[in-house]
Design brief:
The chain is built from 16 helices and 20 strands. The chain is an alpha/beta fold and 509 residues long. The protein folds into three domains: 172 residues, Aldolase class I (TIM Barrel), CATH 3.20.20; 127 residues, Leucine Dehydrogenase, chain A, domain 1 (Rossmann fold); 122 residues, 3-Layer(aba) Sandwich (Rossmann fold).
């Protein structure tokens, strides 16, 4: 990938504009984080306010002073509680520790606006704090009205300005990115889960820094340092980078970014895949041209509602009435497909002869629709059961299936049962949508893939029932999306290894 615009800014080349955040309670922990940070970037923020006492702050700065840390740039921060930090003291306590950081060798400091306003006007340069000053303004509740641009004077009281605001909508994130694009000497930080994709894209639009914690997040929406640099490759993204993503609510559980970004890196493609928390579809759709989005996956709860926003979709997706894959053509035209259909068939046919089988689908949402149509077309006798019986009857009529009331599950027998509800999904993975007495079948498949072995699958295994993890469907539908978006075969082995390693690590933690 080519270098971003402003690739040589206040903090050096694009790779060094990833600012690793070291934040820990003890000096030893902080020192360990600094050493880890320097393996990834040469710009590190030292969150002195996170150290649990003045004694730990002094101990860490003594360690820091003794170390020869090469050509790295260190930015000292000792944010007060009033500014969203952990330092209990007033402005003089903050200034004292920033002065100590300068004596230990820090070149930059982050000075919060609350402290700046308490100082005599025009005298901030008179204090013995680090010589280069980043003035920070935080709003943890919303994205307020912002000016069109900021210009930091090279002869002013500060050297750079940071605007960190909570994105309530994707439109808020776009406003912050646009401010970064038009300004000089600005660090733009969209906070919160909604703002997370814009954090990844901020360097390509001109933000002087983007923050990534070494271990512990210090602000909502942060992405860990290794993921930020190696999975999302945020420092390499340019205006020419193809942006893909997944939309849903919730979305933090999705492993689609890991799946697709691993593939992009393996193939050395100038592309990135981002998770978008989307409550309002129109909010996301309006941002597509501004963010340069070329395609996106669709998950709960938008698989059906996206249909009315499409210019066209494949006949099968239209018949199913649910879309999980959208292509954004160069003229902005949206074309929808359904690869869930492929995923269900490929995952099940390895364990079951589908034609002639009696298969129960529990659920009636977008995932259930894809499964019902796929299995009915493959020759199975399909039954639908859902918490909302009316929704089950509607889906059954559309797919040529039969609706069953919940009470029938204790007496009916099936060749396979599929869970197509989100019950049991990470992080609420301790529950099962069905009881043991309702699992009267030879095989159970859960469309949930995180965790890989859900509570439902564990119950089934304890009764001697064969199981199929939703991760197999996840892989099949994700691999099929490459053909839709990129017209090429994905590096399946590398993508599969990355996701399975993540799932195994979670199971063992």
């Amino acid at each position: 990938m080519a270098e971003t615009r402003q690739s040589r800014g206040l903090f050096g080349r694009s790779e060094d504009r990833i600012c690793a955040v070291a934040a820990a309670a003890t000096a030893a922990q902080m020192a360990r984080q600094v050493r880890r940070a320097l393996k990834e970037t040469r710009t590190v923020e030292l969150r002195l306010d996170w150290l649990c006492s003045d004694a730990e702050r002094a101990r860490f700065l003594r360690w820091f002073r003794r170390r020869r840390l090469g050509r790295a740039t260190f930015l000292a921060t000792c944010r007060r509680i009033v500014g969203g930090g952990k330092l209990a003291g007033g402005s003089q306590a903050e200034l004292f520790w920033l002065a100590e950081a300068r004596a230990a060798g820090c070149q930059w400091c982050d000075l919060e606006i609350e402290t700046f306003r308490e100082l005599p006007e025009g005298f901030v340069r008179e204090y013995p704090i680090p010589p280069r000053i980043l003035l920070s303004i935080h709003d943890f509740t919303e994205t307020p009205r912002l000016p069109r641009k900021f210009t930091v004077s090279p002869r002013g009281q500060v050297d750079a300005l940071k605007i960190a605001v909570k994105s309530m909508t994707i439109a808020d994130s776009v406003r912050v990115l646009e401010l970064a694009r038009r300004s000089r000497g600005l660090v733009a930080v969209p906070m919160g889960e909604v703002g997370m994709p814009a954090r990844i894209l901020s360097l390509r639009t001109g933000s002087e820094l983007a923050y990534a914690p070494v271990e512990t997040p210090t602000a909502p929406g942060q992405v860990g340092l290794r993921e930020f640099k190696h999975l999302y490759r945020a420092h390499e993204l340019t205006r020419g980078t193809s942006v893909y993503g997944v939309i849903g609510d919730p979305i933090a559980h999705s492993l689609s970014p890991l799946l697709h970004n691993t593939g992009f890196a393996e193939r050395k493609l100038d592309a990135v895949y981002l998770p978008f928390l989307v409550a309002d579809l129109r909010d996301f759709l309006d941002a597509i041209p501004k963010l340069g989005i070329r395609g996106f996956s669709v998950t709960l709860p938008h698989k059906q509602s996206i249909l009315k926003h499409l210019g066209d979709c494949e006949p099968l997706a239209a018949e199913i009435g649910a879309v999980n894959t959208v292509v954004v053509r160069r003229d902005g035209f949206l074309y929808g497909c359904n690869t869930d259909y492929i995923g269900v068939l490929q995952a099940l046919e390895r364990k079951l002869r589908i034609a002639g089988s009696r298969i129960l689908i529990f659920g009636a949402g977008g995932s259930a629709r894809g499964a019902a149509f796929a299995l009915a077309r493959a020759g199975a006798s399909v039954y639908i059961c859902a918490r909302r019986e009316a929704a089950a009857r509607t889906l059954a009529r559309a797919a040529g299936a039969e609706a069953l009331p919940r009470r029938s599950l204790r007496t009916e027998r099936f060749d396979a049962i599929l869970n197509a509800t989100p019950v049991g999904m990470h992080p609420r993975d301790g529950v099962s949508p069905l009881s043991p007495r309702e699992l009267n079948c030879q095989l159970v498949m859960d469309l949930i893939y995180r965790p890989q072995r859900t509570k439902l699958l564990k119950l089934a295994a304890s009764r001697g029932i064969r199981t199929v993890s939703g991760v197999e469907m996840f892989f099949a539908q994700g691999f099929a999306q490459w053909d839709v978006w990129l017209k090429q075969r994905p590096p399946e082995a590398a993508m599969r290894r990355a996701v399975l390693a993540k799932l195994r690590a979670e199971e063992n933690s």
